[in-house]
Amino acid sequence: MEIKANNPALKSWIDIKPDSDFSIQNLPFGVYSDKQVTHHACIAIGEQIMDLHMVHHLHYFKGLSLPENIFANQYLNEFIALGKEVTRKLRDRVSELLSNTNTELQNSPNKDQIFKKQSAVQMLMPVRIGDYTDFYSSIDHATNVGKMFRDPENALLPNWKHLPVGYHGRASSICVSGHSFHRPKGQMKPNDAPPVFGPCKLLDFELETAFIIGKQTQMGETISTEKADDYIFGMVLFNDWSARDIQTWEYVPLGPFLAKNFASTMSPWIVTLDALEPFRVAGYKQEPKVLPYLEYTGNKNIDINLEVLIQPENSEATTVSESNYKYMYWTAEQQLTHHTVNGCNVNVGDMMASGTISGPEKHQFGSMLELTWRGANPIKMKDGSERKFINDNDTVIMKGYCQKNNVRVGFGECKAKLLSAT
Amino acid sequence: MEIKANNPALKSWIDIKPDSDFSIQNLPFGVYSDKQVTHHACIAIGEQIMDLHMVHHLHYFKGLSLPENIFANQYLNEFIALGKEVTRKLRDRVSELLSNTNTELQNSPNKDQIFKKQSAVQMLMPVRIGDYTDFYSSIDHATNVGKMFRDPENALLPNWKHLPVGYHGRASSICVSGHSFHRPKGQMKPNDAPPVFGPCKLLDFELETAFIIGKQTQMGETISTEKADDYIFGMVLFNDWSARDIQTWEYVPLGPFLAKNFASTMSPWIVTLDALEPFRVAGYKQEPKVLPYLEYTGNKNIDINLEVLIQPENSEATTVSESNYKYMYWTAEQQLTHHTVNGCNVNVGDMMASGTISGPEKHQFGSMLELTWRGANPIKMKDGSERKFINDNDTVIMKGYCQKNNVRVGFGECKAKLLSAT
Asked: Is the ipTM of this complex over 0.95?
């Protein structure tokens, strides 16, 4: 199916730099506020946002049969729930309005209320997340962890290549990019001594992406790999902050809990799966063969360049990781199929994260744990200081973009600052 | 602090049988529907419900400053969020209206709209659950599982007595008592053979209770054991259905996932923590001493008799377990303190379940896994059939009540029927 808004030949009448994440072929959805607006849905274009409620209010979306205040909700859930047929038409219409062949908005007297500088608005949580699941689907990451903590010769656990391992996470503490949080406290277990309580010492980022569910199922329903894309609205960048020392002590036998649920960070713009379609690439070759319900056809990985930077207080940021979503062993479609194969129901706004995305090369590892190999090889910052894990007052920034045929579709930033323990 | 509605001397003008869970000292909250009503909040009294919206509408709650449609919401969250001072006053006022010394409602011409038979209405999900956490806090359960699957001599894992082990679960598939669901399908691993896909063979119940959060915190805040009760609105019975064979294969290293998230069942009535206060008993003696943040004073366990029955299709129910909440090693207050000690925020309506509640005696075990010791000792049903785990078309019923000084405060039923795999 051809998606009109993806046409690489499209140009906008808005000035967009060649390295902008927000080309006219992207048009990701978010929710913003400023002095005038409590919360309106918007789309990113170049360095600006376009206020969808205002455009709707001025009747530029007539014919799309949208509810009157659909873009004035606190979250995008109700809009997303209208279904892909509607959201796709809306994105096509926005593309048309922004195209240099269209003059409807270019000459609008309301231009100042419709278009605002991204630097002048605050981006809010784009969705009300119902349930949040985190997978563990990068083979390089799982292998690195297995080598460090288990058997270097048998790094992957027996189930790993048979099913996309996943677990439920905490939705309440997922924040939108730009927040800060305090170093968590918890129980840690020194070797040969009783457990102690105090601020976590080994705080780490995890470079991930996440997809947002766009279509509800009922309990008992299963989503096949073939239909999975119909249920995925779009993707974001995701930092699954982890307290390594808390995790080591708590996670057997029921998995990570307080080592994760103190904070997670997501990027504010949901890049639609539609906008990512042109960047599909072949998936990882899966050996042994997966069970039939997990089989799929076609190119289901996506070539998304990913980068992590650490910015110490009052200093320049240093790139510490350059990875890519294409290194994932399990695809998003397989994850969603597996998640629902037992009849588990999903709701619009649910979030499912990839797990740490590491590539095969050392500079492509998606966490400090792997990059410094448990602290053995510290990373030098531009200010001369070294990092084994994340220090107080460091800001961690994740970026991601696809690029092909001079079209760039990016995610913007996913950033958060770690404050000292209280 | 004395809670007026708990007065054991109170008698209602409504006829309440001595073995009713819903004495005038209980007054649990729920949400119901019938032909006339889409969703109204209500209170259980004897064999009836009292429609709170109707009572409010008729001005019997004047002076309590309640929002006009607070009892006409789909869920109780907004009511609970008003805070314990308000919800406690409301419960006291309901108690007054139902007391045999009060005639306001006895002679009301609207009595038929206010009071309805429980058998004539449908109970709905009482709260919109944001996040759901499951703990693992019964020492007899954890010991039994350790004996079966790990080392009988070292059944408890090293962290178990130092922190209340817990993990995040799926909120979307929690249903209210009375539903049915299909036997889940999934991956299982036969010994010495590759994994297979099919209907789960070892479907089990887990006898649990759960508490409902009544007061929000912000990220970074911690709830002390001393203040924890201020954040707990009330409790329900909870069946944490588990697919043992799916779990065995999937749960290492990140915990249970598809083995749990296909369905869970909760009882419809939230019994307030206030109503449970008279039944507090001393907690489990905790050795080794817990870290200071987990210490607590006072009687923080609760003497709640628990029972599980299996009812085969077209047959009588058989009691298979008789346990008690008082056997819990970790208290609800410790669980909540631990959950927030890292700054994890909680929201009104979040649910935190106890984990399987087993007592020390064999008939007190809280799952078929333990009761039949992995199927080695099947249980005989009244119809002559045997159960190692749960069969298709079985209904599992959980009950619970406190009793002291001729006052009974109960939970009603938590029941669900297992249908065959689709």
From this structure: yes
